[in-house]
Recover the amino acids of this structure.
């Protein structure tokens, strides 16, 4: 109906004022993604009196219609836009629904016997896959899980054998189904029953009728029937009720890139076998299919048409890992860097980049894949890094270093990418804007000395010889390129990046001596550098004091005491880190506080009383630095600070957080810091003659005696397997057996001995402080801290022979009894990741057959639990929401407007691979707007809108861009890139060596050897942006997100159904599902309460 | 502790569980100056009585049971046998003096419909360790589901590295069987993590409930240990039954863990390598559910915020000799 009005709407001067209000109302709804925006725009259009308003409304209506898949309405809106004088959409009508050239003809069809679900289950493929994604996903699974080499013979794995057995069974069933494509069993007594059951591997126990039961007779066949989800229960039910059984059973048609015949040619097979059998039998074919399907399609076609099949087969792994960066346009290869670099690429490859496919063929054949890896790495950088790294002279030099003299084994040999260090190096160099060259922490000479006189053995023989002559930063970078080809632990590179990350953003660089100290201490204390990254204004003296304190503690021979000191030091520094990050401690005060804590702990040598006193002093120092009033109750004050820094109107949220913290603390049977300080004060008074307060001591004993000893119920076999009788368990036993009254009696009034009794409670104080850190970082609903009352107390700060004190924490093991029931070993640096890692297997996948995505899940959860949402305004949430909505709108509108499309492509190209960008454009061109939008992440939409909004000359992005610019102009500080990054970003422990939330805005990383999906997850910065936009849409209080974001994120992880380790679209899909469910719930609630959706919901 | 009580008091220690409605809330001083509330709801006991040969003793009356919590005698609130819904003790005493309980005419006296039947949570190990016996295990579980009492509800869960809820708690046998048949084999085994999550779900359900684990034994992916899980089952009053598909002596670590968590929760462990013995184990569990007693009480005021011992004894010369199996105690919950 509205369309008629839309097309016939005539100016109505008498409603001019109303028309403006209607437009303002519609745009206001639109800016909050309100579903009512569309009809509001319709009403506004009907009332719009002037062409300028009509254009504005029709333009937006066309985009909204395309977003909802309504191309007919979009056409009408475009017509109105044109009729009212709109410009720039001259080709809009033609661009709607046009199928991109070549796309439809790129695929043929193959058949797989049986129902789709059965094959997907057997091949471990997600049911959420699009038909065209099925074979690429299968190809990846075959490449990674289908074959193994044993005694130089390629063998099929159990995974592949079961798929083939399933296909054999499916063919039998298909034959049984006949032309009707239905498994028909008229009655239980019919002869079809026996035939079907034989194929399925079952028989009937008991007579047909109510007692009929299916029973396994052929376990191999029965297993296939169950594992492929054959509806056995329905079949059995039909027999029990003696009714007919009908089950559709035909073939599944799957699209095949380039058609089945091409792949038969690749396999060198005749036509006698089904396509699927050919596909399953040839690992090289599967790898090439995987490579071709994720490559920029025109490039893949050009290579197919130009390169020999033999070349493509032989280099399939190289194409598979690095081909996503290859792009051919108009027959010419697109290369990283400018014209000079382009010539250099041609020189390196031996073929001009103008010869498109031949150029890429040469790239992959050069050196077992190193040049392809290099090309891929340089394709992923932009800005100063791209300028620096694509300087022709450096290109040659760094490539030579990377390639080495002996190229084998190449980077594509392993199942996973082996070039993680290369990608990290090129992505995380820090550049001096004045020189355009990378910053080298300290001096070049110092890095030269590291290689020349490395104290723990040579990193690299050639570098050891050349390093003495280094004078230029390029010498260091060249060495790092050389080392990044190694597939073993690459300490110098990690050290370089860690110290670079520490210096990044600092007010002034470290003194050379400090950098040398950091370099020397990296092997022992490298994991601890993340604490130093929390503040960018630490003095060199503070850094040195921090390192000195750990050196001093490491020198204590008594492992028990050392573990307690390490635990106390780690807890204090972790609390310092949290308070700094939360903004409770100002930067200058942060520096002095860390210095004081470090000095305090350095002095502990002789006895536990010293430790207690140093710890207590440090706690008071922390409270003072955080602005707590003198004499304030230490425990509640500290808990209050940790619970957050609430702004106006956030007190209730803060109280909820405090309650949660206190409950978890109590579940761990930990003792309040105040109780311990009071007890210490009392002992001091006792040393001066006051009577001992037995009741006070008993209260402490009661709490601790309630803690069960871990080994009290274990069998000998379990105790032996765990090795329980170590320091951790002795320590807990000592706490249980602590009898202060007896100690006081033994002191017999000696003041010095009485004072030293305070040392007995130092380990208890350690546990309380460590517990506060655990409680702070535990995700909502965390099971280990709820179910294992010894989780905190059993943290092992020493490990075997005290070797693990300063490394990142990890679970002692997994499974029973290796895990010892949940125990972390190591320091507290990186605790949030470790807690999420230990918790990930408690998540419950909601999708059938899915498992939790290990390594990705902990990092994504970390991104939801470390950032907190205090003192954030609704405008800030709105700012993010506007960006995400504007980004989507721009992408849709680019379908109609070639000029805009060019701008959008150029911006997205910085973060999005050519292959994915091509896919977005193709889906858009084909009218599958929803599919196109799914190919981009919220972080990419944010960047796109940000770039467009910053271009003040651009008029694209109505009705969002004006609001974005207004917010930024009104409060430049609040909406500065730095503040937005800190508020909506996530921590990057690997990429930034830090827990500080930020947006790095890097291209998505692939899954890589040595890191699995961890760096992929770090480069995934979309989750919090999406939740912020959702909260904006729902008008939630920002402080609500302190609990909602971890919950939503957890639900998203439980809903992922990924097929392979690069399947980030599966993560995106699940986030959308959680968001949509929340929207539905909220709308239903609003409907129930008869409130308008746009009203406040809390 | 247990041995001491056995010797001195001559009676069997029993555990109670916290569940269901009508909470009794006490405010107590925590271990420090903070104040925490302990919340003790209606305590529900599942009690199995057998003679020396393991035969179930049925038709006992409520007045033949005495319950002590931390040594203090408790007043029974309700009593039921098998799947018959428990009835209030007061009503029972006024209306019947024989050993028969809960006749049909006393439907109005039923304390809570949620106590009708048992909520059975089946946790099926679908890890790689079960690969060879997967199909037979499904057959045995399917038989058990079909044979459950009509009043019972059943939930069908599976686990490998993660838990999967194949069928939520349902009275429909068909739904439960569909859930069972949708299981997928593979991956590592996180038995204790999954058992903990199953217990969390079961704890949310009012009424009588049990968890039955069907597993090969080894746990390669959990981060929580069996004793912490057993402790939670104890606190929640949920008996755990385990059917291990390994012989007793083949895996000492798992066997010991199974025996501990089943005995402390009032359940039983069966070591059944063959599918015939697995079926027998299911029959035993079914019989036990049909023969055990459900007894409830509201605890007398108890300042103890920590572990509370519960002891049950049989009164009368003719029944004193029988053996009682149930749980060993519970910890009151800390409420926020």
């Amino acid at each position: 109906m509205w369309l008629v009005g839309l097309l016939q709407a005539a100016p109505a001067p008498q409603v001019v004022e109303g028309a403006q209000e209607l437009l303002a109302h519609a745009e206001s709804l639109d800016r909050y993604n309100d579903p009512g925006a569309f009809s509001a725009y319709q009403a506004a259009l009907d009332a719009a009196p002037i062409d300028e308003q009509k254009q504005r409304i029709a333009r937006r209506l066309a985009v909204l219609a395309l977003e909802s898949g309504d191309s007919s309405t979009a056409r009408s809106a475009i017509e109105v836009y044109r009729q009212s004088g709109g410009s720039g959409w001259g080709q809009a009508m033609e661009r709607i629904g046009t199928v991109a050239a070549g796309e439809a003809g790129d695929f043929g069809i193959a058949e797989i016997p049986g129902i789709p679900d059965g094959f997907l289950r057997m091949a471990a493929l997600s049911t959420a896959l699009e038909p065209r994604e099925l074979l690429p996903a299968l190809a990846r699974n075959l490449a990674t899980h289908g074959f193994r080499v044993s005694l130089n013979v390629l063998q099929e794995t159990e995974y592949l054998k079961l798929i083939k057995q399933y296909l054999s069974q499916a063919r039998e069933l298909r034959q049984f189904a006949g032309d009707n494509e239905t498994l028909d069993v008229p009655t239980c007594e019919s002869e079809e029953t026996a035939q079907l059951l034989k194929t399925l591997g079952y028989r009937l126990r008991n007579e047909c009728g109510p007692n009929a039961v299916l029973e396994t007779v052929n376990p191999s066949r029965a297993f296939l029937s169950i594992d492929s989800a054959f509806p056995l229960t329905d079949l059995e039910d039909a027999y029990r009720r003696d009714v007919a059984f009908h089950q559709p059973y035909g073939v599944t048609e799957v699209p095949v890139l380039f058609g089945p015949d091409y792949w038969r040619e690749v396999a060198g097979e005749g036509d006698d076998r089904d396509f699927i059998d050919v596909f399953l039998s040839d690992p090289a074919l599967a790898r090439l299919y995987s490579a071709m399907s994720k490559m920029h399609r025109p490039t893949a076609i050009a290579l197919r048409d130009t390169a020999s099949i033999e070349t493509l087969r032989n280099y399939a792994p190289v194409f598979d890992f690095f081909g996503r960066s290859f792009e051919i346009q108009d027959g010419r290869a697109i290369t990283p860097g400018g014209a000079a670099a382009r010539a250099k690429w041609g020189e390196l490859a031996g073929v001009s980049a103008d010869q498109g496919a031949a150029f890429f063929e040469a790239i992959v054949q050069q050196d077992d894949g190193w040049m392809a890896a290099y090309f891929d790495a340089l394709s992923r950088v932009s800005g100063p890094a791209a300028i620096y790294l694509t300087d022709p002279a450096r290109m040659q030099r760094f490539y030579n270093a990377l390639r080495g003299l002996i190229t084998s084994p190449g980077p594509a040999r392993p199942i996973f990418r082996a070039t993680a260090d290369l990608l990290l190096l090129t992505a995380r160099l820090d550049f001096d804007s004045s020189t355009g060259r990378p910053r080298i922490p300290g001096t070049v000479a110092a890095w030269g000395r590291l290689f020349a006189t490395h104290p723990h053995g040579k990193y690299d023989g050639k570098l050891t010889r050349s390093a003495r002559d280094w004078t230029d930063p390029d010498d260091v970078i060249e060495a790092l390129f050389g080392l990044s080809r190694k597939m073993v632990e690459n300490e110098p590179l990690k050290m370089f990046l860690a110290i670079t990350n520490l210096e990044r953003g600092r007010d002034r660089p470290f003194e050379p001596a400090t950098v040398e100290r950091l370099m020397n201490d990296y092997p022992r204390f490298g994991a601890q550098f993340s604490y130093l990254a929390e503040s960018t204004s630490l003095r060199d003296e503070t850094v040195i004091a921090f390192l000195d304190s750990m050196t001093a503690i490491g020198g204590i021979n008594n492992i028990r005491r050392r573990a307690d000191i390490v635990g106390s030091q780690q807890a204090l520094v972790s609390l310092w880190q949290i308070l700094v990050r939360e903004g409770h401690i100002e930067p200058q005060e942060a520096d002095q506080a860390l210095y004081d804590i470090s000095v305090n702990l350095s002095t502990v040598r002789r006895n536990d009383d010293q430790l207690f006193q140093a710890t207590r002093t440090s706690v008071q120092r922390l409270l003072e630095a955080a602005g707590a009033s003198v004499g304030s109750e230490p425990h509640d004050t500290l808990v209050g600070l940790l619970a957050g820094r609430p702004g106006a109107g956030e007190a209730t949220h803060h109280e909820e957080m405090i309650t949660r913290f206190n409950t978890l603390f109590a579940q761990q049977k930990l003792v309040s810091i105040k109780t311990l300080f009071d007890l210490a004060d009392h002992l001091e008074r006792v040393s001066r003659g006051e009577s001992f307060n037995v009741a006070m001591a008993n209260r402490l004993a009661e709490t601790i005696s309630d803690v069960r000893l871990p080994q009290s119920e274990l069998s000998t076999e379990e105790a032996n397997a765990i090795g329980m009788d170590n320091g951790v368990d002795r320590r807990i036993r000592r706490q249980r057996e602590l009898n202060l009254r007896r100690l006081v009696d033994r002191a017999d009034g000696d003041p010095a001995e009485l004072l030293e009794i305070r040392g007995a409670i130092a380990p208890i104080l350690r546990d309380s402080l460590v517990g506060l850190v655990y409680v702070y970082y535990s995700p909502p609903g965390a099971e280990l801290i709820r179910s294992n009352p010894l989780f905190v107390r059993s943290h092992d700060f020493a490990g075997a022979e005290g070797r693990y004190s300063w490394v990142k924490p990890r679970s002692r093991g997994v499974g029973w009894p290796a895990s010892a029931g949940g125990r972390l070993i190591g320091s507290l640096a990186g605790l949030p990741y470790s807690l999420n890692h230990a918790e990930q297997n408690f998540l419950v996948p909601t999708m059938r057959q899915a498992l939790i995505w290990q390594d990705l899940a902990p990092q994504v959860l970390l991104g939801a639990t470390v950032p907190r949402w205090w003192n954030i305004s609704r405008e800030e949430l709105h700012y993010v929401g506007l960006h995400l909505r504007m980004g989507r709108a721009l992408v849709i509108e680019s379908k109609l407007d070639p000029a805009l499309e060019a701008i959008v492509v150029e911006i997205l190209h910085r973060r999005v691979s050519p292959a994915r960008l091509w896919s977005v454009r193709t889906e858009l061109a084909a009218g599958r707007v929803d599919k196109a939008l799914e190919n981009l992440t919220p972080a990419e939409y944010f960047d796109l809108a940000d770039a467009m909004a910053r271009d003040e000359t651009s008029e694209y992005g109505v009705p969002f861009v004006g609001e974005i610019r207004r917010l930024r102009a009104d409060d430049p500080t609040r909406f500065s890139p730095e503040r937005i990054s800190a508020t909506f970003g996530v921590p990057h422990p690997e990429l930034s060596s830090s827990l500080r939330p930020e947006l790095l805005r890097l291209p998505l990383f692939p899954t890589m050897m040595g890191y699995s999906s961890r760096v992929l997850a770090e480069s995934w910065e979309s989750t919090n942006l999406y939740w912020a936009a959702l909260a904006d849409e729902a008008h939630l209080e920002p402080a609500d997100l302190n609990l909602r974001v971890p919950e939503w994120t957890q639900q998203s992880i439980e809903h992922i159904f990924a097929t392979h380790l690069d399947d980030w679209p599966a993560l995106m899909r699940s986030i959308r599902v959680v968001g949509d469910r929340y929207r539905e719930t909220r709308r239903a609630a609003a409907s129930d309460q008869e409130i308008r959706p746009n009203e406040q919901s809390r | 502790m247990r041995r001491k009580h056995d010797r001195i008091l001559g009676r069997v220690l029993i555990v109670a569980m916290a569940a269901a409605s009508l909470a009794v809330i006490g405010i107590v001083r925590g271990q420090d100056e903070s104040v925490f509330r302990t919340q003790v709801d209606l305590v529900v006991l599942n009690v199995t009585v057998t003679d020396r040969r393991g035969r179930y003793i049925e038709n006992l009356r409520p007045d033949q049971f005495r319950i002590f919590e931390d040594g203090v005698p408790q007043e029974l609130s309700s009593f039921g046998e098998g799947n018959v819904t428990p009835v209030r003790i007061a009503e029972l005493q006024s209306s019947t003096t024989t050993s028969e309980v809960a006749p049909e005419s006393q439907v109005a006296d039923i304390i809570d419909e949620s106590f009708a039947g048992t909520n059975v949570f089946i946790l099926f190990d679908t890890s790689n360790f079960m690969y060879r016996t997967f199909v037979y295990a499904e057959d045995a579980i399917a038989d058990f589901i079909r044979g459950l009492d009509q009043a019972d509800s059943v939930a069908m869960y599976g686990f490998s590295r993660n838990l999967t809820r194949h069928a939520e708690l349902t009275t429909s046998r068909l739904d439960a069987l569909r859930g069972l048949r949708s299981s997928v084999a593979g991956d590592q085994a996180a038995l204790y993590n999954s058992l903990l999550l199953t217990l969390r779900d079961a704890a949310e359900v009012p009424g009588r409930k049990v968890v039955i684990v069907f597993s090969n034994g080894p746990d390669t992916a959990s981060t929580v240990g069996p004793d912490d899980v057993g402790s939670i089952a104890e606190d929640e009053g949920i008996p755990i039954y385990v059917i291990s598909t390994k012989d007793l002596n083949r895996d000492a670590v798992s066997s010991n863990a199974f025996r501990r968590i089943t005995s402390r929760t009032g359940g039983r462990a069966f070591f059944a390598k063959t599918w015939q013995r697995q079926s027998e184990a299911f029959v035993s569990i079914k019989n036990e559910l049909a023969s055990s007693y459900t007894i409830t009480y509201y605890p007398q005021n108890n300042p103890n915020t920590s572990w509370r011992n519960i002891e049950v004894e049989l009164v009368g010369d003719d029944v004193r000799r029988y053996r009682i199996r149930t749980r060993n105690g519970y910890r009151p919950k800390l409420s926020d």
